[in-house]
Design a protein that fits this description.
By secondary structure, this protein is mostly helical. It has one domain. 75% of the residues lie in helices and 0% in strands. Helix 2 packs across helix 9, helix 6 packs antiparallel against helix 12 and helix 8 packs across helix 9.
């Protein structure tokens, strides 16, 4: 089955919306963590709910819950990679400033481009690499990665090293997920593909939590509300991403997802009253310019 790519402007718009939804999920997650929940609990709950949501879509559409054995095995492998991404990123956030963790994680578009080039899947246009570098430069300012805006305390020592390594592993895992989903699962029904991936992530999170004994539930109504909200937001975003991924042109459009931490900064400013410094606003503007450059860059095969 041939997958028809969406128009570039529509792909960019949808990815911006998905990035904003992911950012909203992170803000809700921060509230849930502040009120007693932890990483294993959040990943297990949100992934289980996402799987249940997609399962209801499959049932309503009478889609058979069957995949060819090779496709199913590949989906299991991609699901494990997605589990690694989820657990590593949240673990990085627990060790180092959220801004720095997200900055390191948002190197995944570069990793995706290099992986695609190395495997002969696609070759990013030269301007796409320029846009990625520009986006990362803007993120460094917007997220105050160097402390120039004085936006908060910084971690150091072993915590910094382990946090950066975990965020980088999460970025590499997510780049591999995007590449392999487009390459191996493009012909599978998007809802069925998402269902299998979410089942795997939920299972891995449950096993990780049970093995480590680190399940922790929210301790008050605010925490429970935040956990429910992050579950809803994540389920919507991840389902939309994997249903639409084969039609979005992942290699040359993936850097648009760099808007997620910018959206998180804006939402945290509104919801959590965390003001942005002028230098951070400049960085946000640079990221927007990078996105415009990326959208106007033609794809190459």
């Amino acid at each position: 089955m041939t997958v028809t790519a969406l128009p570039r402007w529509l792909s960019a718009s949808l990815l911006l919306l998905i990035a904003t939804t992911f950012a909203s999920n992170h803000v809700a997650a921060r509230v849930a963590f502040d009120h007693g929940a932890n990483v294993a609990t959040a990943v297990a709950v949100r992934s289980s709910a996402a799987a249940l949501f997609v399962w209801s879509l499959l049932r309503a559409a009478r889609v058979p819950l069957r995949l060819p054995r090779p496709t199913f095995l590949r989906a299991l492998g991609i699901g494990v990679l997605l589990s690694v991404q989820s657990l590593c990123l949240y673990s990085a956030v627990a060790r180092i400033p959220v801004a720095l963790a997200l900055l390191v994680f948002n190197t995944f578009p570069m990793m995706l481009g290099l992986l695609a080039w190395a495997t002969g899947t696609a070759r990013p246009a030269p301007r796409a690499f320029v846009a990625m570098a520009l986006a990362l430069s803007g993120l460094a300012l917007a997220l105050d990665a160097f402390g120039w805006a004085g936006s908060g305390a910084r971690a150091d020592g072993a915590a910094m090293t382990s946090g950066v390594v975990l965020a980088a592993i999460g970025a590499l895992a997510f780049a591999a997920v995007l590449l392999l989903t487009t390459r191996w699962l493009a012909d599978a029904d998007g809802r069925l593909r998402s269902f299998v991936l979410m089942i795997v992530v939920a299972t891995v999170a449950l096993l990780a939590g049970k093995t480590s004994g680190e399940f922790a539930w929210p301790q008050d109504a605010i925490g429970w509300t935040a956990l429910a909200l992050l579950t809803l937001l994540y389920s919507s975003a991840i389902t939309a991403l994997f249903v639409l991924l084969p039609r979005l042109g992942a290699v040359n459009n993936a850097a648009i997802m760099n808007f997620e931490p910018i959206a998180a900064l804006l939402l945290a400013w509104i919801v959590l009253d965390q003001a942005m410094a002028p230098l951070q606003l400049l960085g946000a503007a640079i990221v927007v310019c990078a996105i415009v450059l990326l959208v106007t860059t033609p794809s190459r095969r």
